[in-house]
Amino acid sequence: VTPSVPAAPILCGEYRRGRTYKNWRPRGTDDWLLILTVAGTGRITIPDRVIRLQAGDAVLFAPGASQDYSTDDDTGRWHLRWAHFHPRPHWLPWLLWPQVAPKVGVRQVGDLAATPIESASQRMLTAQRLAGQGWEDIAMNALEETLLWLFRLTETAQWSGIDPRIQQAAHYLAAHPQEPFRLAKLAARC
Q1: How far apart are CA 20 and CA 65, in angstroms?
Q2: At 183, is the pLDDT very low, low, confident or very high (cuts 50, 70, 90)?
Q3: Which residues contact 150 (CB under 8 A, 6 or more apart)?
């Protein structure tokens, strides 16, 4: 059994792991756990199946959820970002993900680098690494932004059925309003 880690209010990190990486907490933890797959492949084992986590997949374990996750044997490598946290009360609606098992949700984002989730989750990690006064508040703010983008990017009805290249173009334009608009340049990016 993998020991629990205390998160008050947040503990986060980033791992690049090989085939031997495994975590098993049959009773879960008393906090929430968010895992973002940056590269490689991970897997979660739930009672009736195994779910492979590809780059851009996110998994959210609620308190008390059985946590059984590891590097996928086929690829043998998994680059993941994680956060154990106690959510602020107004976050709770953003944590109601479609469940693949009791208290376990999975969302597929796609190319993380093409979304604001990448930079927000990186700021969360930077805050913890630098530590110092107020690091937990900065990390929680970055986690809040990460969760909001996950909620927005996967739940907004306006994006359902829209070609991913169009979505990528819209995100790029929204993130770079100062750049002159050039259709050929935008098309080349997407």
Answers
A1: 23
A2: confident
A3: 58, 94, 107, 109, 117
Mean pLDDT of 59-71: 97
Angle at 41 between CA 55 and CA 24, to 5 degrees: 120
User: Edge-to-edge strands of the sheet including 67-71?
Assistant: 22-25, 67-71, 42-46, 49-53
Report the C-alpha gap between 20 and 2 in whole angstroms: 13
Residue 27 has pLDDT above 60, yes or no: yes
Query: Rounded to two decimals, what is the model's pTM?
Result: 0.82
User: Residues 72, 78, 80, CA angle at the centre, nearest 5°?
Assistant: 130
**3 state SS of 184:** helix
Cα dihedral 38/44/49/50 (nearest 10): 50
Tens digits of residue pLDDT in 82-96: 999 999 999 999 999
- H helix or E strand, kind and range, residue 124: helix 116-130
Q: Which of 39, 128, 121, 28 is nearest to 77 (CA)?
A: 39
